[in-house]
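Shapes recur. One chain:

:::
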Amino acid sequence: MPWRAEPGALGDPYHVLVSELMLQQTQVATVIDYFNRFIEAFGSIAELAAADEQDVLRLWQGLGYYRRARHLHAAAKQIVAEHGGQIPGEMDALLALPGVGRYTAGAIASIAFGRAEPIVDGNVSRVFARLTAIDEPIDRGDVKLRLWDEARELVSGAARAAGYGPGDLNQAMMELGAMVCTPRGPQCLLCPVRRQCAAYERGEPELYPVAAARRAPRAVVHRVMAVRRGGRYLFQQRGDDGLWSGMWQLPTLEDARSENVGNPEAWFAQRFGMQLERGEMVERFTHMTTHRKIAFEVWAAEVRGGRLRPRTGQWRGLDDVGDLPMANPQRRVVKVLRDRQA
């Protein structure tokens, strides 16, 4: 892992911050190339703070959960403004940074500064749940607090007694969960703590952790308006809040409950000030997010009249959108349109 320090050394605070934000909801194998490109482009917290947000989002393109990129950019600006460009090591200061919660703050404090701060992610939770055979759902509030208490005791007591640095122990716990104590088919015979593991002793480690029933993702519709004029298509930038904030897209009418969802041409005229020929649906696909099942319907239409309202979008050829950061579903739409033109 390119963000890891040499054995026995503290991690680079900037590298730890970037990697931890990238690793939220994302696997290590996916993050490595993104991390390397990001550090090559923004070699320091000061360079990141001075960067244009669109450049940051462009480098994040394809990694998903784009709010993380905006939080990281905002955190860099705050670190430069309030901490002289030096990432703080104190928990209170770390927790005050955008996008930095208890886990990320603990990771930075322990790995980069050697502080005895705990971390509890999905891997660590699973290890603790099996070690002590916790019979309650681990995403329940009181159980979460118990896991954090156990992690704090371990990192402040056992780590010191065994001669490990807090960061070493925290990273070892994460890797134990990721590589040995896996959700399915845990490699118990290779586990260094199996003799202390209650789930192993019971012969049923895969029954742990107990998870609460999850809600089914909410089904919504996104109608993408592929509006063409003179061989170019209209693109707009999403707002600062919500899903894929700050990214670019073809104009998209969202949520099946919208009053205009059955008449996208009327919505487009009201929003952008132009009238369209009657559109036709040319593609339909499904995209899953954490909480949504999104049916994307791509409608192709030509401009019939009117003028684009100021600051609502810009016209681009399909081969001239490389500088626009777009989420994966919108990039898929662009590919669909290119294939139709071929």
